[in-house]
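cron nightly-structures :: item 1 of 1
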Amino acid sequence: MDEQDLLERIQSLVEEEHRLRDAAGSDDGDSTARLAQLEAQLDQCWDLLRQRRAKRDAGENPDSAEPRPISEVEGYRQ
């Protein structure tokens, strides 16, 4: 997945997240679970994008960046 693909994926996830948050009045368990999934996937995509950019800036091949497990990226401190 190249940088443009990642940015498009992030945009798609953000749009879905906004739709779910706008419809939050229906507050069902499915929406809550899906929002949690979206947030985790977004964290994973952002992490991969940062990895790719860091590798490129260091003169390395950005295509060698690999998605880290969600359990790992969710454990990062902000």
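cron nightly-structures :: done
The chain has one domain: 3-73.
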